[in-house]
Amino acid sequence: MHTPAQLELLSRIGFCARRWPDLVIPDDSILARIVEQHRSGYVIHDGSDTHVAKSLPRLRHRVEQASERPCVGDWCIAAVRHGGEWIIEELLPRFSTLVRGAAGETQARQAIAANIDHALIVTGMDRDFNLRRIERYLTLVSSSDAHPILVLTKADKSSEVDELRVAVETIAPGTTVHAINAKSPESCAALAAELLPGQTAVLIGSSGAGKSTLTNTLLGAELQATGTTRERDGRGRHTTVSRALKPLPGGACLIDTPGLREIKLTGDEDLAEAGFDDIEALATSCRFRDCKHEKEPGCAVRAAIEAQQLDPARLSSWSKLGGEISRAGESPIARRERKQHDAAMARALRDVLKKKGRS
Ligand SMILES: Nc1nc2c(ncn2[C@@H]2O[C@H](COP(=O)(O)OP(=O)(O)OP(=O)(O)O)[C@@H](O)[C@H]2O)c(=O)[nH]1
Ligand SMILES: [Mg+2]
Ligand SMILES: [Zn+2]
Question: The whole model's pTM is what?
Fold first, then answer.
């Protein structure tokens, strides 16, 4: 087992022995954390050194979901095998995982980061700023067991910092919002103070939002390459291409990730946890229990919109995200039946339109 000195080194990359009280490490193996994830393999950190490592095929293929494969932030048991090659042999149970739906028409899931305490949702206060996207990120994070923190960057370039911050606070009641210049250590100090020693935070947000810039400022070193954004639309250039965990001087760890092109939900999200508790609370006063807040009489949600107490854009966001959650979570059979039903409805509509055209 590990000596107190080794445990102290591991705690600098986020290890907390209380979380895995029954842990036994075989004599020929070590405990390590996955700190980088590339197409070709992993980099693991044992508290003192990093090693290039591969995972056992069993951990990659014989899992029910791709999200169970080793990912950055995972704690693993690793050993040197086959003439000096490091192999990840087991994963410790995760206490949190940020997961998204994999791109394309599949129900596959992909883990973005594991064993994270905070998810920092980074949005630039420039062309990147979009309340509906922030709602979507909050929804994604709601199934992760990590605590969301909203980070608005480029405060030094925006003339409406206070207005934008208030707009974000309105859609995310109870969630901390930091409006910062990601290039300035002073401006990032309050955010840095929220990341306690031993904790791990993951950065998510669009390309160009400033995730790597913030990483470098919190590190106090230019370890992560940063890119420029296009003049025309403020978009980034996907500068960061892999996920990497870095220990911060204050004792927390930060995981920088590439900007997500698509934020696809998995079906496990909870809109009440994602800041939509305002709509969910109103809905309890609707006359019908299964009110969709569309045209039903006695709808408390639409009454709130008419009284200008609720932004209609928020209701449409809620219903869009809710639809995605239930579709992502449905079984393959239910999915096929829904598609057949949708196709039959579309055919019926086409027939009606054809008949109308003829008469
Ligand atoms: N003025 C100013 N510029 C910023 C701020 N944050 C980021 N930038 C700039 O925005 C550009 C993109 O920043 P990055 O940190 O590379 O963005 P990223 O989120 O890591 O993007 P990807 O790696 O592509 O996902 C760089 O030119 C940064 O200097 C900020 O708070 N203020
Ligand atoms: Mg980056
Ligand atoms: Zn209603």
Answer: 0.90
- Give 313's contacts (C-beta < 8 A, 6+ positions apart): 131, 132
Q: Give the Å distance between the CA of 246 and the centre of ligand 2.
A: 13
**212 and 310, same structural domain?**
no
Got the DSSP string for 84-132?
TEEEEEEEPPPS-EEEEEPSSSS--EEEEEES-SEEEEEEESSTT--HH
**CA neighbours within 13 Å on the CB side: how many for 61?**
3
Q: Quote the ligand 1 centre to 228 CA distance (angstroms).
A: 7
**Are 279 and 305 within 8 A, CB to CB?**
no
**Ligand 1 pocket: which of 159, 180, 214, 226 to mutate (most atoms within 8 A of CB):** 226
- Report the candidate in 41, 189, 186, 37 with the shortest Cα–Cα distance to residue 112: 37
Report whether 55 contacts 70 (CB < 8 A).
yes
Q: Which atom of ligand 1 approaches the CA of 181 most closely?
A: 31
Query: Quick one: 84 and 56 in the same domain?
Result: yes
Query: Is residue 88 within 8 Å of residue 76, measured between CB atoms?
Result: yes
For residue 210 and ligand 1, the question of a CB distance below 6 A is answered with yes
What is the tens place of the pLDDT at every residue in 50-70? 999 999 888 888 777 888 999
Q: Is 163 near ligand 1, meaning CB less than 6 Å away? A: no
Say if residue 60 is in the same domain as residue 143: no
Rounded distance from Cα 10 to ligand 2 centre (Å)? 26
Ligand 1 center–CA 23 separation, angstroms: 40
For residue 203, what are the domain limits? Answer: 97-256
CA distance 236 to 249: 28
* Ligand 1 neighbour 259 (Cβ under 6 A): yes
- Give the tens place of pLDDT for each residue, 154-197: 999 999 999 999 999 999 989 999 999 999 999 999 999 999 99
